[in-house]
Design a protein that fits this description.
Blueprint: E1 14-19, H1 25-34, E2 38-43, E3 46-51, H2 53-62, E4 68-77, H3 81-89, E5 102-110, H4 117-136, E6 141-142, E7 149-156, E8 159-165, H5 187-197, E9 205-207, H6 214-223, H7 245-257, E10 267-271, H8 274-286, E11 294-297, E12 312-315, H9 327-343, E13 348-353, H10 356-361, E14 368-374, E15 377-385
Parallel strand pairs: 5-6, 5-7, 9-10, 9-12, 10-11, 12-13
Antiparallel strand pairs: 1-3, 1-4, 2-3, 4-8, 7-8, 13-15, 14-15
Bound molecules: S-adenosylmethionine (SAM).
């Protein structure tokens, strides 16, 4: 177990696990490859890579489908509570928690003797606090809301991996959201849906159930090459004791240098609810894309995009799970499906649906289906050439 981590050792190849929503691993893998990171390996629920502190910062700044970038500190076998405590105590926590810094431990366990995540969290927290008390006479305190350091303990078949969260809040929190709406899509999922759709960043893009405009902001970030993390206020790695602020500023400047002007992009959004569209406009403005999207109140049951545009319809109609289920919803899907078949010839479609009967009501027999989760909801993404 290599758990004595000195600040110098941190600048050599470290191991990282980048988490994502189940079903998104292949896209995240491609993103990490595009960043030219080392030893990129796809796993369940995320992607592993090896790299430096610089690579960790770049991953946090540029990845669109990632939820968190976790840095691995230690791996060991532990089938008992004392083993866990002893191994967790040996990590050089003083390199991660300066005096006065706060802590939170989150555990996840599968197929292991230690099968209570809350118990694991307590033991790891005690090991960290006791080790720091012994080494420098002060314990860190726990902060459940905004800890300076989040430690993850993952157990699988009695093998424990301890990781520190270099991101902090989920990377879905890009920093542009001013309005939430009733059932917004996570920003990371919107990026995944757009990438799956094959949208070329140039053709017209239409969302007839646009809600708070998440798909549009993510589409515009993609089209302008803007790093999704460039609007965010803070990443956890900025509080690490040996954080290299000059390097971080350089990476931010480099990212800005890669941005492209928007050019002529046709993006059209509609929703039944006018107040929601006002919220979408606020979100777009906060992301720096004021006026880039034409927004209008419209019932998607009468959807009829411009003929001949041959663009993309990328959308996330109401599921009923959060917005309330009714016969009307099936009727809306039937009507919308009819509109897609009748008036969208030449368009490509990517539609995130939350229920099989709703997908079936669209009557899009030729659609490809991908399993993807939206928070706690199992969804399917239907992709079709109309
Ligand atoms: C699941 S939400 C879309 C969320 C959106 N992707 C976001 O990130 O905010 C579905 C949206 O469909 C809208 N809606 C419901 N019925 C509609 C209809 N008949 N026509 C157009 N929009 C409708 C709701 O107002 C809601 O904003």
């Amino acid at each position: 177990m290599s758990n004595k981590t000195s600040p110098t050792a941190r600048r050599q190849a470290d191991s990282y696990f980048v988490t994502c929503a189940p079903g998104v691993e292949a896209l995240l893998h491609a993103e990490l490859r595009a960043l030219k990171l080392g030893r990129v390996e796809r796993q369940v629920g995320g992607v592993y890579f090896e790299g430096s502190e610089r690579d960790c910062m770049r991953a946090n700044l540029h990845l669109r489908t990632a939820v968190r970038v976790l840095r691995r500190l230690a791996r060991f076998q532990a089938s008992g509570s004392d083993e866990l405590y002893d191994c967790a105590s040996q990590v050089a926590w003083e390199n991660w928690l300066p005096i006065g810094a706060t802590l939170l431990v989150a555990a996840h366990t599968k197929d292991s003797t230690l099968d209570h995540s809350h118990f694991i969290e307590q033991r790891v927290k005690d090991a960290i606090c006791d080790a720091l008390l012994e080494r420098r006479g002060a314990r860190p305190t726990v902060d459940k809301q905004r800890p300076d350091l989040r430690v993850h303990a993952h157990f699988y078949r009695d093998r424990c991996t301890l990781l520190v969260d270099t991101s902090g809040e989920s990377l879905a929190r890009r920093g542009w959201r001013r309005f939430t709406g009733r059932a917004p899509m996570a920003e990371t999922l919107a990026a995944a849906v757009l990438m799956h759709s094959g949208w070329d960043c140039r053709s017209p893009l239409i969302d007839p159930f646009c809600g708070s405009g998440t798909l549009f902001v993510e589409a515009l970030l993609l089209a302008t090459g803007k790093a999704p993390g460039s609007l965010r206020e803070r990443f956890a790695f900025e509080s690490f004791p040996d954080f290299d602020a000059r390097l971080w500023r350089r990476l931010l400047d480099e990212a800005r240098g890669l941005e492209r002007p928007l050019g002529k992009l046709r993006i059209v959004g509609s929703d039944l609810d006018g107040a929601t569209l006002e919220g979408a406009a606020k979100n777009l403005a906060a992301a720096g894309f004021e006026g880039a999207v034409q927004l209008e109140v419209r019932d998607a049951a009468h959807f009829a995009p411009k003929r001949g545009w041959n663009g993309w319809v990328v959308t996330n109609p109401p599921y009923g799970e959060r917005l309330g289920r009714s016969e009307d919803l099936l009727g809306l899907y039937r009507a919308f499906g009819e509109r897609l078949r009748a008036s969208c010839e030449g368009y490509s479609l990517a539609l995130l649906s939350g229920a099989e009967d709703l997908s079936a009501a669209l009557e899009l027999g030729n659609a490809e289906r991908h399993r993807i989760t939206n928070g706690a909801l199992e969804c399917e993404l239907l992709c079709a050439k109309l």
